[in-house]
């Protein structure tokens, strides 16, 4: 079927060389089986693309000659929808584009609106938000710590990772009612106050995850095959990163020392000792290591937030909002360090209850574009190792 | 005549039963290693009938053959993958006198017939008319080419030590000190066998996360089930051969001989499963490197060692 689909596209693009292979060769008339490049579509339905990313690869044997990410299969017009929703509804929409970092996505929106309103957020809300953002980061990183080995054929770490995710998700579910899309942020604070005893339960969950993390480490981190598959594979240099706007753990694995939590603190990060994890190798292994070390840093930050929350005196957790919330005329850009990279919202308001424009700068969109530079020259078998190490969420690409 | 018929019936029974036991063992052992339960419902007791239920389901499914496929080759490929293992089982001795046929050139026969099994996946890869399948078939072919050599070299070392190609003869000649003597050969044989079966960490040809089961991409229903069955019969055959050649077959204290053979087979099958749970997949070029730079020299060292000890 793939052969046939290509036949159609080759009509509109006469330069495309389509070669049938195997018994499928008969489906392509007038062509001989020669050593021409084979065009291979990875996706949109492929287990390694975490959804519907499509890569059009031209293969010379098993070596990739050109690679082109084709996106948009999951485009939902989020930015256009933002323009016809009020600010409460936008939070619901915004937390969906990167479904592994829902809380981090909500944060950007509420920070932008609060900044436009000049609204002061209660101190307990600030610390609770910081805590939840870090727990969200832990959830996100655990997912990739499990799924990346899975793509390399190690089937066990993902189960350990999901056990830890369950532990954290239990406390997230208790507080917000949601397991993925928390919808716990409100302009001016959080939806509700923290339940009684929740801080202790969260502390236990964080301790449990930290205690059991070596299960994953021992299984995969020192494994010879894992090292052989990832070390020196898919090296991304600093220059390319800066040109393509790659950010987050992927950029830090190549020595780009940028983390908004430290460099442009929002929430309570200014008062926290944020340790920025960097590596210089820039290969798949470095990216995986950064993710893993960041996970530990996030657990430590979560502990620090918990400690602070216990000491804070009782007080409000949100602001009383008017029935109709209007951001004053103006514009602002709120960017946050999402688990996968820089996540920014450019909010332009004309004083109405909906934004005039809300531009979303998502991390995965920029991170995936660089595949075009990284993949050519590599083996097809490395394609999966590289693709998996770019830690993307398709919703975050297509928006 | 009756005796031969009886032997064949027993072998077919073992051919159908042992892979299911290994498959179920894989389900459950893998699940518990991954902090899961595995199948729990089919059949009532800890999901013992899961694979039978799977089989029933597979039989009922539609048999889809892609339009661009080479139909005849596509249809017989699962049989080509499966039948050689059945034939190999005929000559594997389980106890003294417990075998289908005792061939003088049993080892030679076994290695030759096992090589045919891999043709099945090459045929499937070629005939499916799917690029992923072709890549998988290509990788299968490359893997077979490289790993056949260390497999044969390691096996010939035992044949040299025993001075016979008969499998029963090899087991009868076996002494306990062959364990350290043939240790390198045993490891080479087992690893190369794993690679021939395309089991993890050598499952690059079927890698479901990159080329989506490779040669098996287009297969559905009972034909797919036959490929899976071939994989598990392969595990049984590999474990049995390693047992017979290197671990002394039915030799062992206290328990009756056939029980020892079965224990050894299942321990090895467990190792095969264990390796799958613990290791990522090797890349195709790394596979080749392991065969040519690692296993072949080791097998030659073993051959030399066997020769030297034999002459002394």
TrEMBL record, chain B:
Keyword Membrane listed: yes
Organism domain of life: Bacteria
GO biological process: aerobic respiration
Broad EC category: translocase
Keyword Hydrolase: no
Membrane topology term: Multi-pass membrane protein
Catalysis performed (reactions): a quinone + NADH + 5 H(+)(in) = a quinol + NAD(+) + 4 H(+)(out)
Function (record text): NDH-1 shuttles electrons from NADH, via FMN and iron-sulfur (Fe-S) centers, to quinones in the respiratory chain. The immediate electron acceptor for the enzyme in this species is believed to be ubiquinone. Couples the redox reaction to proton translocation (for every two electrons transferred, four hydrogen ions are translocated across the cytoplasmic membrane), and thus conserves the redox energy in a proton gradient. This subunit may bind ubiquinone.
Protein's UniProt name: NADH-quinone oxidoreductase subunit H
Organism: Acrocarpospora corrugata
């Amino acid at each position: 079927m793939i052969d046939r689909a290509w036949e159609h596209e080759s009509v509109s693009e006469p330069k495309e060389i389509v070669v049938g292979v195997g018994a499928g060769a008969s489906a392509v008339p007038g062509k001989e089986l020669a050593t021409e490049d084979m065009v291979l579509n990875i996706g949109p339905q492929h287990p390694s693309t975490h959804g519907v990313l499509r890569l059009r690869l031209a293969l010379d044997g098993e070596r990739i000659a050109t690679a082109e990410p084709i996106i948009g299969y999951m485009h939902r017009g989020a930015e256009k929808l933002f323009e016809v929703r009020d600010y409460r509804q936008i939070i619901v929409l915004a937390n969906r584009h990167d479904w592994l970092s829902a809380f981090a996505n909500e944060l950007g929106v509420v920070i932008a609106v609060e900044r436009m309103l000049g609204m002061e957020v209660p101190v307990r809300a600030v610390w609770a938000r910081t805590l939840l953002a870090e727990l969200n980061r832990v959830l996100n990183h655990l997912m990739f710590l499990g799924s990346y080995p899975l793509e390399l054929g190690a089937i066990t770490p993902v189960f350990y990772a999901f056990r830890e995710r369950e532990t954290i998700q239990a406390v997230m579910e208790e507080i917000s009612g949601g397991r993925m899309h928390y919808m716990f942020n409100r302009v001016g604070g959080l939806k509700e106050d923290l339940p009684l005893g929740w801080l202790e339960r969260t502390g236990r969950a964080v301790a449990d995850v930290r205690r059991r993390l070596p299960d994953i480490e021992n299984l995969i981190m020192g494994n010879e095959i894992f090292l052989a598959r990832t070390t020196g594979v898919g090296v991304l240099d600093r220059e390319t990163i800066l040109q393509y706007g790659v950010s987050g753990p992927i950029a830090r694995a190549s020595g780009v020392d940028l983390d908004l939590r430290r460099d442009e603190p929002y929430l309570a990060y200014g008062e926290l000792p944020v340790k920025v994890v960097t590596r210089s190798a820039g290969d798949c292994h470095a990216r995986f290591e950064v993710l893993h070390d960041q996970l530990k840093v996030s657990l430590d930050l979560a502990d620090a937030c918990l400690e602070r929350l216990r000491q804070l005196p009782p007080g409000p957790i949100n602001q009383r909002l008017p029935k109709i919330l209007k951001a004053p005329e103006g514009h602002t850009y709120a960017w946050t360090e999402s688990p996968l990279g820089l996540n920014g919202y450019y909010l332009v308001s004309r004083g109405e209850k909906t934004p005039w424009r809300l531009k979303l700068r998502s991390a995965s969109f920029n991170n995936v574009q660089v595949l075009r530079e990284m993949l050519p020259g590599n083996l097809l078998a490395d394609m999966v190792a590289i693709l998996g190490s770019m830690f993307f969420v398709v919703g975050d690409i297509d928006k | 005549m009756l005796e031969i018929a009886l032997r064949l019936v027993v072998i077919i029974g073992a051919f159908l039963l042992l892979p299911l036991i290994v498959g179920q063992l894989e389900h459950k052992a893998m699940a518990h290693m991954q902090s899961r339960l595995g199948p729990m419902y089919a059949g009532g007791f800890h999901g013992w009938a899961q694979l039978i239920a799977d089989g029933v389901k597979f039989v009922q499914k539609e048999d889809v053959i892609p339009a661009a496929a080479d139909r005849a080759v596509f249809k017989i490929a699962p049989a080509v993958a499966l039948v050689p293992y059945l034939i190999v089982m005929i000559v594997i001795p389980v106890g003294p006198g417990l075998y289908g046929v005792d061939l003088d050139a049993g080892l030679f026969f076994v290695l030759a017939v096992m090589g045919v099994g891999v043709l099945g996946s090459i045929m499937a890869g070629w005939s499916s008319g799917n690029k992923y399948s072709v890549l998988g078939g290509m990788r299968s072919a490359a893997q077979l080419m490289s790993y056949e050599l260390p497999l044969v070299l390691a096996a010939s070392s035992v044949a040299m030590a025993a001075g016979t190609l008969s499998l029963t003869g090899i087991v009868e000649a076996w002494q306990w000190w062959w364990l350290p003597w043939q240790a390198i050969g045993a490891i080479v044989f087992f690893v190369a066998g794993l690679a021939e079966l395309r089991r993890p960490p050598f499952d690059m040809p079927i890698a479901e996360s990159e080329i989506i089961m490779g040669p098996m991409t287009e297969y559905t229903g009972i034909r797919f089930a036959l490929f899976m069955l071939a994989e598990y019969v392969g595990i049984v055959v590999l474990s049995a051969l390693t047992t017979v050649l290197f671990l002394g077959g039915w030799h062992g204290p206290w328990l009756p001989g056939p029980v020892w053979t079965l224990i050894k087979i299942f321990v090895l099958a467990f190792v095969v499963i264990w390796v799958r749970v613990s290791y990522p997949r090797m890349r195709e070029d790394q596979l080749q490197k392991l065969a040519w730079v690692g296993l072949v020299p080791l097998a030659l060292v073993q051959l030399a060692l066997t020769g030297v000890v034999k002459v002394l």
